[in-house]
């Protein structure tokens, strides 16, 4: 994460069924399926009738950690997942706001999931972030290994707040000391205001001939997408695919991004695509390339086959650089745009009195009107019909057995 005005806003809507619809090998159309979402650990308490609650300000929380404890011992690395809790003022009870995805075998996670928060700035704003080594087989939180915690006011994580985008020391479960004896883990957070017109993009990528990364001669491949910030050479991850095991020609499932319309100066931010090999000892980069959504759009309109050569900088500058050409090719299989459904605002909430109305939240690094704008693609997004840049190819069903 970086400066406030440096990051566009993305989110992944896991509940939209269209991303799993396709054509099976026998030519039959698959049924739409919704991605399973874990139930909250603690629901928000019911607001008492005698407590007047005003309209909230929507935010998204971005999280990253460094040097987490290894909860798996010598077998592998921790599979970290973060959970955001907030304290409800009228009831005094803690509840779960949301959680990130689980990242396998990584002690320095940068979560792609942004946690949606309804922030009531007229109320107390105690919050805490807990990080666990997550075991997918358990639903009881007590069976997951606690890795660290941060606790403080949510307002301090918002733009301009004292703790926004700063490395903060993580504490133990009781908050009485650091989460590690020698040196504590650190966590970086940013709460980003959300606004603007939402547009959905459905994309699919594949790679061909990527480098072999294991003794078996195959690669457990996954892809990450990151957007450049205003700091030279810095990128922030906003999407991570599933792992396709034992292959040098992975084709990842279609995924969906919801983007808020943003200012034109961010339209040509660099987009970094990285293909990695997953292992229990941590990720290993196969190669990367850079482009932009503007370039993807223009090349699609021109009817080009969009593919990029993957370059591994370590190999390109290593001892065998004279023999090195590339680490494979990544291809954009499909790109589709559609409008997001707009939820009607609840009419029962009271409007705040004029003299106490909060100021409009400034645009944050990922939030506000700061999402990638594809030139000519997001103009008049509310009236624009669904646009397909390319007929969707038959989706190949990849069954990936995740290892713990």
Strand-helix topology:
Blueprint: E1 10-11, E2 57-66, E3 80-87, E4 94-99, E5 115-119, E6 126-133, E7 145-153, E8 168-169, E9 186-193, E10 198-208, E11 219-228, E12 235-240, E13 244-247, E14 255-260, E15 271-277, E16 284-291, H1 293-301, E17 307-309, H2 313-316, E18 329-339, E19 387-388
Overview of the molecule:
This protein is mainly beta and 404 residues long. The protein is built from two helices and 19 strands. It has helices spanning 293-301, 313-316, and strands at residues 10-11, 57-66, 80-87, 94-99, 115-119, 126-133, 145-153, 168-169, 186-193, 198-208, 219-228, 235-240, 244-247, 255-260, 271-277, 284-291, 307-309, 329-339, 387-388. Strands 1, 10, 14, 17, 18 and 19 form a six-stranded antiparallel β-sheet that branches. Strands 11, 12, 13, 15 and 16 form a five-stranded antiparallel β-sheet that branches. It has a four-stranded antiparallel β-sheet with strand order 5-2-9-8, with no helix packed on it. The longest helix has 9 residues, at 293-301. Residues 350-363 have a biased composition (Low complexity). Residues 379-404 have a biased composition (Acidic residues). InterPro entries: C2_dom (IPR000008), C2_domain_sf (IPR035892), C2B_Copine (IPR037768), Copine (IPR045052).
